[in-house]
Design a protein that fits this description.
Helix content: 40-55%
CATH topology of the largest domain: Rossmann fold
Number of domains: 3
Strand order of the largest sheet: 7-6-8-11-9-10
Distance between the termini: 29 Å
CATH superfamily of the largest domain: NadA-like
Strand content: 5-15%
Shape: globular
Number of strands: 15
Largest sheet: 6 strands, mixed
Structural class: alpha/beta
Length: 369
């Protein structure tokens, strides 16, 4: 389900007007009160890219899969109020028990990257790729994908990957098949395969809009088929941004997320997952200088947490992730007050068949972690 479908299905469930008239102090006091009342029955995971006004109430912060796993381990909690985006809440629902209820405070909180890999497009692509390459392809999907795409990979022998374990998972995939089909982020797939020694000229791009393979050369040379998708945030970091930093701050190290394009990753000093970036800055010496190429809410938080270091965003004009920012204090409070009143709003519930197949893909990854 893409973000437009979610919005249309939940158009009647909108934030009540009274939340727009409440002060921040009043809302914060109510959230604390409800959290205390629910105790262990309530668990609030908050993604690294969330606003500070939400993160301060999170019981755990982390990346999407990490938070879903922590939620699954928290068996005492009846309610998981997931402060992230739709695909993250789906993963939490897949990994938690049937008795636990996963709530997304705002159903408009989707992910443009996840929406770039539609299951109907993927099901159309698969037989066409088999016509070209036979049974030589294993599908892999970034966890930043819908449950339906995870299920597709699960039933076709594939697995999920994170930005932290992508190298290990791509290496594993090549022990299973001659080629991989990587969804939905072409940049993470390209950067990972390149780091493992696959030449760029052995990578092709599948365009789901035209159902065509973008490649010049002998298709027998293709080892990696990349879905034509990307992160709308990380796509906006450019080589020009790097050139500006090099010119104005020649002693500044540049670290970026592997969702950035290949040219940006190649021109940077280092690249890695959100967790990797956070730990790199934490372990850096006082006085060190950094330009970070990732989501702005996280960069601002890192800057605040490390006043002993000179840290800037690689792109000073970068906006926070707009869909992630749908989750705010008013929506969080509304979700909590609804639960307090016995009303479950914005419940995320994955179809059982899809959940079972998606779990196959997740379990294959977790078995190798």
């Amino acid at each position: 389900m893409n973000i437009l479908e979610m919005a249309s299905q939940t158009a009647q469930i909108t934030l009540p007007e009274r939340y727009s008239t409440m002060s921040r102090e009043e809302m914060e006091a109510r959230v604390r009160e409800i959290k205390e009342r629910f105790g262990d029955q309530l668990f609030i995971p908050g993604h690294h890219y969330q606003k500070d006004e939400v993160v301060i109430f999170s019981d755990a912060t982390g990346d999407s899969l990490q938070l879903a796993q922590v939620a699954a381990q928290n068996t005492k909690a009846k309610y998981i109020v997931f402060c992230g985006v739709h695909f993250m809440a789906e993963t939490a629902d897949i990994l938690t028990t049937d008795e636990q209820v996963v709530v997304l405070p705002d159903m408009r909180a989707g992910c443009s990257m996840a929406d770039m890999a539609d299951i109907e497009q993927t099901e159309r692509a698969w037989p066409k790729l088999h016509e070209l390459f036979g049974d030589t392809i294993l599908p892999l999907t970034y966890v930043n994908s819908t449950a339906a795409i995870k299920a597709f990979c699960g039933r076709n022998g594939g697995a999920t990957v994170t930005s932290s374990n992508a190298k290990a998972m791509v290496a594993w995939a090549f022990t299973q098949k001659e080629r991989i089909f990587f969804l939905p982020d072409q940049h993470l797939g390209r950067n990972t395969a390149y780091d493992l020694g696959v030449p760029l000229e052995h990578m092709a791009v599948w365009d789901p809009q035209t159902d065509t393979l973008e490649y010049e050369g002998n298709i027998e040379d293709i080892k990696v088929i990349l879905w034509k998708g990307h992160c709308s945030v990380h796509q906006n970091f450019t080589v020009k941004n790097i050139e500006n930093v090099r010119k104005n701050h020649p002693d500044m190290k540049i670290i970026v997320h592997p969702e950035c394009c290949r040219e940006v990753v190649a021109a940077s000093d280092d690249a890695g997952s959100t967790k990797y970036i956070i730990e790199a800055i934490e372990n850096a010496p006082a006085g060190s200088k950094w330009a970070i190429g990732t989501e702005m809410n996280l960069v601002k938080r890192i800057i605040d947490q490390h006043p002993d270091k000179h840290i800037v965003s690689l792109n000073p004009y970068m906006c926070p992730c707009l869909t992630m920012n749908r989750i705010d204090l008013p929506h969080l409070l509304w979700a909590l007050e609804s639960l307090e009143n016995g009303e479950e709003v914005n419940v995320i519930q994955v179809n059982q068949k899809i959940a079972e197949e998606a779990l196959l893909a997740l379990d294959r990854m977790l078995a190798l972690a």
